[in-house]
Amino acid sequence: MKACSIxxxxxxxxxxxxxxxxxxxELVESAKLVTSKEAFLxxxxxxxxxxxVNMFENIIQNIISNLAEKSGEIQPRVRFTTVGxxxxxxxxxxxxxxxxxxxxxxxxxxxxxxxxxxxxxxxxHVDLIMLGSDQGIxxxxxxxxxxxxxxxxxxxxxxxxxxxxxxxxxxxxxIIEASEHRHLSKIAPGVVERTPxxxxxxxxxxxxxxxxxxxxxxxxxxxxxxxxGKTTLAxxxxxxxxxxxVRCVYVAIGQKKSSTLSVIETLREKDVMSNTIVVMSSSDDxxxxxxxxxxxxxxxxxxxLDQGQDVLIVFDDLSKHADAYRELSLLxxxxxxxxxxxxxxxYIHSRLLExxxxxxxxxxxxxxxxxxxxxxxxxxxxxxxTTNLISITDGQLVLDTDLFNQEQKPAIDIGRSVSRVGGxxxxxxxxxxxxxxxxxxxxxxEVEHFTRFGTEVxxxxxxxxxxxxxxxxxxxxxxxxxxxxxxxxxxxxxLNAGHFDQxxxxxxxxxxxxLIDFFLHRENKLLIDIRKETHLSESITNELDHAxxxxxxxxxxxxxxxx
Length: 563
Description:
Elements: E1 2-8, H1 17-22, H2 25-33, H3 37-47, H4 50-73, E2 76-90, E3 93-98, E4 106-109, E5 115-121, E6 125-130, E7 142-149, E8 151-154, E9 162-163, E10 180-183, H5 206-211, E11 221-224, H6 230-239, E12 247-255, H7 257-269, E13 276-282, H8 287-306, E14 310-316, H9 318-331, H10 345-353, E15 367-375, H11 384-392, E16 395-398, H12 401-405, E17 418-419, H13 428-434, H14 437-451, H15 459-475, H16 485-496, H17 508-522, H18 524-532, H19 538-562
Parallel strand pairs: 9-13, 11-15, 11-16, 12-13, 12-14, 14-15
Antiparallel strand pairs: 1-2, 2-3, 2-7, 3-6, 4-5, 4-7, 5-6, 8-10, 16-17
C-alpha cells in the first residue's frame, strides 16, 4: 500500500533590523495568516491605531510584494511513504499487511508513536516485534516504514547509568548525550584482526584466578542451578576492576527488578557504578526487549573496544534470552525444533559471543571479556542451550548445588570446570605458586570418598586429606569481597611455604583474615612491589618470608591473649 502527500517548501521572510524594530510580533503573525491583500490590510487597520496606519503602510506593501514573489517560486513536491495496516496485535507481536519495501530489522512506527522491528517477511504480510506497549493500537491502524534500522546510543556518557535495551535512561530523567548511535548487529572481528589471549583479567575470586584463570578477550561461561551464586561471581569480577581501567557492562536479561536493583545497589556501595553501564530488561518487559538486551550491551561495549580499552561484559543470563527468543519465534509461527527452540538459536548466541575478542595493537589493542551466565536444571549441563553455549565459549565454571549447601562457597565443581586459555592468561608468579594445586584437589576428592565409609588410611593419605581440606578452606570466600592480585599471591605463598600446615582446620579462615589485615596495615609497600612484578624475585621472596615470620609471631600473641 502506498500513500501520497504534497508538501510545500516553506521560505523564511527576511526583514532588516529597522523593519524588525518597527514591525510588532503581532503584525508578523497576522501576515502569516491572511491570504489576500485586502483582508490583510483590513486586519491591520482594525488592530492598529488610526495615526499609526500610515506609518506601517510602506512596510505592509513590501511584505505583501515579497510574499507574492516567494509564493511564485514555491514548487510542489510529491513524497511517497511506505505504509501498511495492522491485522493482528498482541503478546508483543504485530502482523501487518502492506509495507512492500520493508526489510529485515527495519523500524516501523505505529500511530501511538511506539516502534516495531520487522522480523518476519512474507509475501502478503510482515511480522513485527513491538519495542514498547501495544496499548491503544487496533486493527486497521496505519503503520509507516522508516527505512532505518534500530540503533542505540554509545559512549562514555553511559557510564554510571541504568538504561533499557533501547538505550533510554531509566534511573533518572537526565538525558544521555551519547557520543554516537550504532546498529545492534555487527560482524565480529576476523581472525586476522585478533591476537592470542595472554593477559590476565583478575576476577577477585581466588578459586577462579588460581585454578581457572580468565584472560582479557576470553569468554568464560558460568553454569549452575538457581541460587548457587552465579551472579555473585560475575558481580565480584566487576568489583575487582575498580582501579584497573577496565570498563564494565552488566546486562540483566529477564531478571526480577528486585534482583537487578540489588546488584546496582552493590555496585554503588562499592563505588564502581561510575565505571559500569547497566542494561536492564525485566521479566515483565516485552519479549522483544529481552531479546535485544544482550546485543545492546555488546554494542555499547564495542565503543570502548574501538577506543583501545578493555571491557568486561556480563550477560545474566542467556537461558532467559533463549526463552525470550523461543517465545518470539512461536508467536511468529516459526517451526519449533528441539525443546521448541527455533533452529537458529545457536546462531543468535554465537553471533553475540563471537564479538568478544582481543584485537591486535595495530587495530587498537582493546578487548572484550564476556562472562555469560546460564541456568541449569538439577545440574544437567547436557541440556540443549547449555551445550550450545559450552561449544561457543572458551571454558565453563560449573557451580554445584551440593557444594553450595555444604557451605563451600564459591561452589565451583573443580572436576567439571575448565578454562581453555589456561596458564597463558596467568602471570608467571601466579603460575609458579599454583603448580599442582588443581591436581592435589582432584586427588583429595578421590581419597575423601573412601574415608566416608570408615576405611583406614595410612599416614601419607591422611596428610593428603588434611592438605586438601586446608586448600578448600583457603579457597572459600565471602561474597562481594574480591581479593587483589597481591593478596592472592601472599596467601598462596603462605600455603606453599607450609604456614597453614600447623593451623587447625577450623582456624584456617581466621588465620587467613588476620594475615590479610596484617599485610594491609603493616606491609603495604610489599603488596605494591608484588603487584608491579611479574615474577617473584629473590628480594620479594625474602621480604615475604620475613613478613610471614613476623605475622606468625603476631598470631601466637593473639592466641595467647585469647586464652
